[in-house]
# Entry
Amino acid sequence: MNILQVVSSNVAGGRELFCVPVSVKLIEKGHKVSIMCKKGSPVEAEALRRGIDVIHTGFTWYFNPVEIFRAAREIRKGKFEIIHSHWTRDVSNLIVASGFAGGVPIVCTKHVYSTTMKKDLFHAWAASHIKTMMCVCELVRKNLLDTVSIAPSKVVTVYNGIDTKEEWRPGKFGGSFRKENGIDEKAFLVCMAGRINSGKGQHVLVAAAKKILQSHPEAVFVFAGRPEGAEEEKYYEGLVAGVKESGLEKSVRFLGFRRDLPSVIDASDAVVMCSVFETFGLVLIQGMAMEKPVIGTGSGGVPEIISDGNNGLLFEYGDDVKLAGLIEGLIEAPERRKALGAAARRTVVEKFELGNTVKIIETIYLACVKSRS
# Structure
């Protein structure tokens, strides 16, 4: 098949970047794949790094006439058989562009939870032109059916996946991150990865770290990710200032955006996610794949990933005291860490392996292409 993946967001988030590993796997399976994205975006950088063909788009909001005609031209030129949108905001533009290009079928992955009703004529029109809506968890699938007028037969759950055989393989990097960053091999290293903003809750882990370091001064906390926009920059600056005022710069470190996240997690002893709400939580399965004990907030789609006390641990958003206690429990019980990590790895291999996710997506593509012909 000739496949076009589309995401016009400029953010370096899981929703945006997920199309890249999916594309790599599809190419390995013999398909031709191009990614349509913004010039200079993190998606473009990652796609080019992985050797994937890139097509630029200037899509903005729900209807952009000039960019619709450009997209239609690219769709015709590339002879694409299926279009896969990873951002619902792009769908209306793609529907019109596809119409001009001969009616190429469109599928969409729904990564986010909606807090508003969208049963108006516009959203009904958009839903009627989508062949399949793939939701990243059951929570999102049910939410979509509740908020949008769409046929249930069009909506399926397709969990995100990661490559556990090559990229996310325990011990692959041999602790190189610690050596490169002067972190002692005996230090208990806690990793939190994701965009820097209040919703992700980095401040919760910083507060917990201050408590933990009083009794476990050997612990080190690293934050991989960066802020986007003025409001998030202000939040980030507040975090850094608070750490400096407490004299904890050596123990609490902000790494910025990391392309070597597998190496960072591989060197860690635990992975934490403090978000107020996540529909999936990609970083959790990344940590689990590396056989690390993971701690996440018990909201959104996270309970579909973590079974509390079995393959990870859960706490309520904002409860830094509980979080500190959970991390201290892991520091003091190495055998429990090992057991949780092993169970976590098994969960990801069985439920969130990228190869299996791509097989499901490929089946959906084929059905859509066949129905068109």
